[in-house]
Amino acid sequence: MLEKFKQLFLVESIAVDITSGNIIIYQQGNEKGKEIKINEPAVVISEEDGNKCIAKGEKAETIKGISPEGIQFTNLVKTGIVAHSEYFEQLMSSYISELYKNKRFLSFSPDVLAVVPEKTTMTNQKILIESIDAAGAKNIDLVTSLIAAANGLREHNDITKASIIMHIGRDYSEVGIISLNKVHFSTSLNIGYVDFIRGICEYIRNETDFVVGESNAEKALLEIGTAFYIEAQDENQAIEVSGMLKRTSVPHKVTITKLETFNAIRPTVERLVSALLEVLEHTKEDMAEDIHRHGIHIVGIGAKISRIDIAIESLGIKARVAPNYLTAIAEGAGKIQKNRS
């Protein structure tokens, strides 16, 4: 009885990650493995005058390609930072209300540890803090994405050893060397998961008589897309998606092969490899053994691209996609938050 009474008045802290591709909220005090309570796209669909929100999160993502005139699709987060503070505040407020619906009458608010990109500005940090504060939180602190990721890796939990994190977000990416829980060197670039999708759209438009939308390009990417082509296994693989003839705009079925997806996304993969090479140039000699042993850990929504680890390994250093690639940063932030309390 006493335990139930304590739970009624306990407001568990939360960690918030908006850098990995979605809004991901980790809540303390839950059974191990069940701490992730919110994991939804940071998007809303509203009337063009902005007065009415029609859909948010997962639902908004599924209908974005079919919205008619007078309806606008808004990404609330761009390059890992808040791009539309008013809608972001509303969305966060709804999530906090959902998480604490049985305790809101107490007027208590959760402490928050929020994740920001490694190279974010003070202005962007302030916007994030103010938005979360207005949504009903308090005592908001920040941690950078690469540090959070290093703490959230399940297969490499010795943060005293040097390691390399490649974080492929929705529309930006970061690569950094982490040693002793500090960032030794990092670089960021303005490409991410959406660039793989757009690469397929552009390739089909330029190399065939057809055009496809981003939803169908993403379908092809996830079902047969590959960052590394193996001819013996891949040459006969293809997918049929909906598209249009370029000249007439008549709806038409479009066949996309695995080789075409590889050629379409290869420029984006090559830019990620170039960023990794830049980071490796700043590796200290004494870090080499750790990095050789542990390799490169890939996190973020872009880690779902098939064989992205094999493409990275073409440099001669092992790479692995974190099993919890989408939630590693949120889990790491939650772990840091717990250790601070």
UniProtKB/TrEMBL annotation:
Subcellular location: Cytoplasm
Pfam families: MreB_Mbl (PF06723)
GO molecular function: ATP binding
One GO cellular component term noted in the UniProt record for this chain: cytoplasm
Keyword ATP-binding appears in the UniProt entry: yes
UniProt keyword terms in alphabetical order: ATP-binding, Cell shape, Cytoplasm, Nucleotide-binding
Any one GO BP annotation for this protein: cell morphogenesis
Family note: Belongs to the FtsA/MreB family.
Protein name: Rod shape-determining protein
